[in-house]
Amino acid sequence: MKLSCLRCGESASVTCVQGDACLVRRLQALGVRPGKDVSVIRRAAFNGPLHLRVGSTEFFLRSREAESITVQHAV
After folding, report:
1. Domain of 33?
2. Contact criterion met (CB below 8 Å) for 49 and 64
3. How far is Cα 59 from Cα 50, in angstroms, rounded to an integer?
4. pLDDT at position 23 over 70
């Protein structure tokens, strides 16, 4: 499933990060890499940015960029 499909308060584990090299490097610098847990804190209206947490880092990510991140719910 794509990160952009998660609802507020949901968490999942990152399985894959795709996209152009610049985006992948930026996401890695924020801690978004396979095996890491990501939580959706808030979602902006009208397909706006997502407020995310990875570890102790909080940041905003455009919905279109969240489409490049594949996640899996913890079982």
Report:
1. 3-72
2. no
3. 8
4. yes
Which residue, 48, 55, 51, 11, is CA-closest to 32?
A: 55
The total number of structural domains in the chain stands at 1
Concatenated DSSP letters of 26-41: HHHHTT--TT-EEEEE
Mean predicted confidence (pLDDT) in 20-33:
97
pLDDT at 74 over 80: no
Cross-strand bridge partners of residue 13: 37, 72
Q: For residue 75, what pLDDT is reported? A: 65
CATH classification at residue 14 = 2.30.30.90
**Mean pLDDT over residues 21-36, rounded?**
97
